[in-house]
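Input record (one chain):
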Amino acid sequence: MFNHVKQIVCATALVLVAPLLPSGAYGAPAAGETYVYHVINRYNGETVAVLHHEISGASTANGIVTEITADRPHVTLPRTEVHTSDGQWLRHPLDNHGRPIDYEFPRALPAVAPPAAGQSWSVRVNARAEGVDRERSVRIDARVLGNERVRVPAGDFDTVKVHRIIYAGDAGNFRTETRVDETDWFAPSLGLTVRTETNSSWQEPCGRKMCIYRGDWHLHELTEVRKRN
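The corresponding structure, as predicted from the sequence alone:
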């Protein structure tokens, strides 16, 4: 299930274990282009939605603005994401106990790739969410798995494969924070991911013990690239 709640996040200093590739090493999507993704439910193989990622003319030197809409309005409300040309997050949703919530990072959160396979990094930020009184501590642990050429409906792409675990900092009401487990296939030639697999889990009481609950398990695949007219 996709839901949308806007959120404002204030970040503290970021500590990196490995440097990131310079932005000049990447391509970047241009304003007016649209990237179409199919979202597949990995539990049953059904297509959940078709998402249209339109690159906004509002994109600036600080970030590329993407307006996202779904073919099924009841699945997800329109939302805005912002990332740098090398794929790092400035505004991005994270699952919160089965419900996607937008996070905004005043400084780019390194979510994609340092320069070599095997390298890893860990980042923690203090997050403040709209409608939430206290700050949230969000952690991301990521590792580059290597380079991989992948085939998606939109074509064949050389990618950097990255695995990351994100702790959303949303613990409360006797529930642990959400753990988001993601694998990205980032195509430097596009400055975008062409495939993302994501699932989430958390624990909360069930009777006299703590039980594991699971959120959506989705695969996003790029199916079409629509260039500017």
